[in-house]
Amino acid sequence: MDVLWRRGTPATVRDVLAELTASRPLAYTTVMTVMDNLHRKDALRREMDGRAWRYSPTRTRAEHSAAILQEVLSAAGDRDEVLMHFVADLDADAVASLRTAVEAARQAHRS
Q1: Contact 1/41 with Cβ under 8 angstroms?
Q2: Phi/psi class of residue 50: alpha, beta or left (left: φ > 0; alpha: ψ in -120 to 50)?
Q3: Global pTM?
């Protein structure tokens, strides 16, 4: 996913493999299997380009991260307590960003 988000354009399995093998050896079939699984889970969309699929993310990195946070909060026993611990560990800049985001969400819900 990171490779596709950084690229910003659709990529084939070979494209992704080329970027990943720069740091560690991987088999083509391994990358193909992971990308196919992500497609089946609706994390990637794909379009045929000649004889190869070109993959792209269905969500931005921020949208994906937000969905993960929602999953964590949904799985938490006490959502409010988890949020309180989360906010307590934030620095001042992050708290200010969170306040801005909450206010923007309130405005969006009012519209």
Answers
A1: no
A2: left
A3: 0.76
